[in-house]
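Quick note —
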Amino acid sequence: MLKGIVDFSLANRALVLIGAVLLVLGGGYALTQLPLDAVPDITNVQVQVLTKAPALGPVEMEQFVTYPIEAAMNGLPRLVEIRSISRYGLSAVTVVFEDGVNVYFARQLVSERLAHAREAIPPEIGSPEMGPVTTGLGDVLQFTVEGDGVSAMERRTILDWQIAPRLRAVPGVTEVNAWGGLPKEYQIVVDPSNLIAYDLSLKEVFEAVERGSRNAGGGYIEHNREQYILRGEGLVESLADVEKIVLKVGSDGTPITVGNVAQVREGAMLRIGVATRDGRGETVIGLVQMLAGENALQVATRAREAIDDLQSSLPKGARVVPYYDRAVFVHRVIRTVVTNLLEGSLLVVAVLLAFLGHVRAGLVVASAIPLSMLIAFTGMVESRISANLMSLGAIDFGLIVDGAVVLVENVVRRLSEPEGRERTVRQLTAEAAHEVMRPIAFGIGIIILVYLPILTLGGIEGKMFKPMAWTVVFALAGSLLLTLTLTPVLASIFLKKTGREHEPRFVEKLRRLYLRALDVCFAHRLLVIASAALMMLAGALLATRLGGEFIPRLDEGDISISAIRPPSVAISEVAASTGRIERVLKRFPEAITIVSRSGSPELATDVMGIELGDVFVILKPISDWTTARTKGELIEKMNEALTESVPGVGFSFTQPIEMRFNELIAGVRSDVGIKLFGDDLETLRKKGEEIARVVAAVPGAEDVKAEQTSGLPVIRVAVDRDRCARYGISVGDVLDTVEAARAGKVVGTVFEGQQRFALVVRFDDDAARTIDSLANVPVASPGGTSIPLGQLATIAMDTGPAQISREAVRRRIVVELNVRGRDVASFVAEAQERIVREVTLPAGYYIRWGGQFENLQAASRRLAVVVPLALALIFAMLYFTFGSIKPAALIYLNVPFAATGGVVALLLRGLPFSISAGVGFIALFGVAVLNGVVLMTQVRDIESKTDLTTLEVLRRACALRMRPVLMTALVASLGFVPMAIATGSGAEVQRPLATVVIGGLVTSTILTLFILPAIYSLFRGHGSSVAREI
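Predicted structure written out below.
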């Protein structure tokens, strides 16, 4: 079949060239449709269920809201886990499904179960709702609303009602979340003494206001053969309208209105979050979240354009100032990838021209690069694979041209032979292609085969590396097709007969040196083979010294700092504290912009208490840094400055996307999370702190912190039912008073055009500023007297849990930490040993390790299946190629020898084993056997056509195949060199893979050119006649 393809192509050259033109046109169009992103979205399939219940503390929230939702979700089809957080006024339940589940199907399943959960939740508490359809890569644009002379309330209103609606209309945007500012509401601030004076209760005020602000429909009236809709309009439209609402009529017939008992004003809701910027005070943050599955670059660009368009329509003085744009990061990473590919292609072309000594031949081979990539781009578009760091990160143009190198080198050699003078260029090209098409097809086929097991990877590593494997498979399949069709056609058109041997002088000298060295290997075969065996044994021993990590940390270019304060901190102190943090960080000239956000946003997708905050530091390019040379050094200096200048606050350093991924995937924000499961919150707290102290002493542990679950100050108002009964006051009246003390009760809505604001009944701030003032708040009794709240309930200061976290329907606490200066695997091994030795857990309590280490373990288990599968496929393909175990086993020795080189290269560069390196080994094994196949095919071909001795056969085959073997090894390794030494964004992920391939190709090429012939000669039984045969 292969021969038929080559002959058909050469017989129909015009048709093949037309096909190439169509490929350029179709591939060019596909390139314009190819989505761009920085990295693949590795977030698992999950649905968030969010519930706001301002009246409930963490324990009540868990009991009345979180647990019923968890119970309803338990047992869903293809469910992986359920995680939840219960805080003051907020519940967030995360339902995680298996990979491959359609997110909209998952939301449908959750929606159906939510209907049952709502029945178990008291209606006055709150109604659970699903969060937006977004992922860990969903935050594509972040901005602040600034304005000289524009108040915090006005800025928040502008965001909520002008900016957010416009951005939600942008294709691909699922939500615009708000953080900070003062959310506007209309407040009816009741004076308790006036209620007593007019013999009114809070309940009567609630009911009267609810009735006094509404519209009604009365059907329709027919008049003069026409139909008129009957409408009753009674909605309040201003503060004055609210003041005129009648509460009751006095005994003398005088109406008592809201204005008689309360002050009506515009005010701010109680905040659950605060935002600041650049140390200048509070600001308002907008967070544009992308719909899952959309193109991040396009969505971010559209959102940025929408912001530019609406700037002119904002009120005077207001403006939108973006500070984080995903498009910038995407462009930075794609620039790194494109630079690596361009530099790699130049190195490949340089090697081709140098070894072939023939410009036209080099260009014929190089033509396979862009055309194969166009085929790959077409496959990526059809498979909905974005062009990103991973999908393009393993593309090696050396691999793409390997087949073309072997074919064109053979064509050049045949055209230079005097025996070919009587035949045409087309005939010689066909003969040359026939000689090498089988090893080319099988060699490329083997490389494709070893990538196929990567497609079986699941979890995060599957999402990271499957796109890469598909892209390489598309490119190599395209390369094989072009090598058998277009390359022979171009060679027959552009290459000419020379009738004499012509190759660069350095290649001739290199061949002479090589043959001398080969003769030495033949003369000392046993020593050479023993040395090779020792090298492989040493490689196996060195492999045990490699540390382990999941995936190298991708440098996003910016820094995210988590700030942890005591749970009792006030929101005003948080704003002041973040301002101090920003001013300290502003001392570093590397920082462009610093934005902080604490607490939770309006749509609480990020459930944080006000004591927790994220500080985003947008940095200059590293080439402009003066304070530090590396990011690690800059982080260390920033940490020292913050610890010294802002005492009482703990800091943890990470990156924006990395933090979001860790939180969504594993429920923790750091590299390693030690999850302690149990039932009693106090026991969990004590043991968590004990574990934190133990792991903090392990070398490499940084930013160690136990999850804060206690220390939340609480003023408990415990209703005394006996006293209430004595005065004829219901428990509901007492609780209405407590509710109105600060947050207030929503009793209606005030419309301002399209804008709508809550209408709230509450007391003045002074009514509940202290325990004494709260105890003196009067509660109206049916007899017309007032009873102080302190006589109807016990009011006392207390402390309660700040947060209750649950996983797998059990309470748990997490000790989080980052690992610096060593690999994660060895750190966890030492930490586990110390915890077992130094921490005693009560019965029923257990530890589970999460974060990046959990991902590493899961990926290692999958690689333990995938790597043997790839190795088995390689051997099966070799056996199928040669039809015999001996040559297959001989070439198969390239695999352990190549692995040795990869291990040594990792050690020399100080890189631990990672999933990226593991995939590099899989790719290396396929490339390593290619040259062995080319050489062994030549050996067997000469053996079948001549009666030369084994050593003569080997010398001739090695002399003929030295150039293609060196060329394929060099172009494959040099194609990865830019990735191995790159320093741009994303280079960290590519570096281990490229290092493994380069190091492995060095050792496998040595084995192919020297050790493999020595072993083959020993197999053939010519050990006693070496000297004579040489």
